[in-house]
Design the sequence.
């Protein structure tokens, strides 16, 4: 049997064969209806209301961050986090080339320029050693952060992305960034519930962000949050997110040009009910991942991406990697699996290859170029029942 059909058979051993299985479906089995109905019954559907606060408190409890600021998307969260961490017009922000476009878009929305960095084979996220080596080639240390000799721009922040829930090696990255005087803003959009040596994704850098889009591990319909231990940064982000309006009973006075990025109460209500089930989702998702790992252990040409050393992963999206020449079968595998009712997707196109991002400088990206075409995401929703 050819590789594509063997993969279909393997997926068929786990997934239902009588219906289409999406890549990642939301799973509503808690108090979602009660909480959303409460918003409607009380008229508190918009940017004020008790669920926003309750959701933020829940995020603080789950992650151990000092502060959580809920906003209306992960992209908005990352833009604000970069701004309050000091990214100014024209500064460079280091991002991996292998990530969802929102990571890079948010840095540009914050006024930044981009500097694309390579990934690590095991974590699929930023490679700290390589970042250090590349900075040694192009950067001059400076008081306000290093200067890129090739562009003349200040490098103002590093954004590790915890791809598919697997965390970047954060102790190594923290050491490299401390040496270069670079703040870390974690894109933990996909990694709520993952930990690195016990520390929650999004709480290790100066700030971190989460997403609650419909395809993430928990959903608000749409939403995001900024996590930080720095109360001042949290206050600034909250102020910017809510039109920079100064508190007053009736005056409209604004001290900055702010944004309307607050999370509506009705979305926070949905997210609060979802957050109550996070531990159940993680248990189910990890069980599914173990099952996939067992199945793909029988393949020579395919490896299953497992949580990296030091990381407890939420296994947001399960991923297989096509080894050696099997990379040539990717189209056939995508065709056969989707046709069989098992939704699969390639990993994102590397951002530096897309026209809006092609003008930005890149470091050596050899690992990303080699690995990205080999990745396929397979169905991963918390609703999938593993026998
Ligand atoms: C989903 C996602 C985002 C953006 O979050 P939204 O809530 O969709 O704006 C950013 N980065 C990564 C890596 C993501 O997966």
Sequence:
């Amino acid at each position: 049997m050819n590789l594509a059909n063997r993969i279909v058979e393997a997926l068929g051993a786990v997934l239902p064969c009588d219906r289409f299985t999406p890549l990642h479906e939301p799973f509503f089995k808690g108090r979602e209806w009660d909480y959303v109905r409460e918003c409607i019954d009380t008229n508190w559907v918009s940017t004020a209301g008790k669920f926003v606060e309750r959701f933020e408190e829940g995020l603080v409890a789950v992650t151990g961050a000092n502060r959580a600021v809920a906003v209306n998307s992960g992209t908005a969260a990352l833009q604000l986090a970069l701004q309050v961490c000091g990214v100014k017009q024209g500064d460079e922000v280091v991002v991996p080339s292998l990530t969802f476009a929102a990571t890079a878009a948010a840095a540009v929305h914050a006024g930044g320029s981009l500097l694309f960095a390579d990934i690590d084979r095991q974590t699929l996220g930023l490679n700290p050693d390589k970042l250090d080596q590349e900075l040694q080639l192009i950067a001059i240390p400076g008081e306000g952060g290093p200067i890129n000799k090739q562009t003349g721009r200040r490098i103002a922040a590093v954004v590790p992305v915890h791809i598919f829930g697997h965390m970047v090696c954060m102790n190594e990255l923290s050491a490299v960034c401390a040496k270069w005087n670079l703040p870390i803003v974690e894109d933990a959009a996909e990694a709520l519930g993952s930990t690195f040596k016990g520390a929650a994704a999004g709480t290790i850098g100066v700030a971190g962000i989460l997403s609650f889009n419909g395809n993430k591990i928990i959903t608000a319909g749409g939403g995001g949050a900024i996590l930080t231990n720095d109360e001042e940064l949290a206050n600034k982000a909250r102020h910017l997110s809510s039109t920079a309006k100064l508190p007053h009973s009736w005056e409209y006075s604004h001290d900055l040009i702010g944004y309307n990025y607050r999370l509506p109460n009705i979305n926070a209500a949905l997210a609060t009910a979802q957050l109550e089930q996070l531990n159940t989702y993680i248990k189910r998702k990890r069980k599914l991942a173990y099952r996939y790992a067992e199945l793909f252990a029988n393949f020579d040409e395919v490896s299953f991406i497992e949580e990296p050393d030091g990381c407890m992963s939420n296994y947001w999206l399960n991923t297989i990697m096509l080894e050696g020449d099997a990379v040539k079968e990717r189209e056939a595998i995508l065709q056969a699996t989707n046709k069989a009712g098992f939704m699969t997707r390639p990993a994102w196109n590397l951002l530096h290859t897309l026209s809006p991002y092609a003008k930005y400088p890149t470091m050596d990206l050899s690992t990303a170029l080699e690995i990205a075409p080999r990745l396929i995401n397979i169905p991963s929703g918390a609703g999938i029942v593993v026998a």
Observations:
- The pocket of pyridoxal-5'-phosphate is lined by residues 73-75, 99-100, 102-103, 161, 187, 189-190, 211, 213, 224 (CB under 6 Å).
- Residues 278-296 form the longest helix (19 residues).
- The radius of gyration is 21 Å.
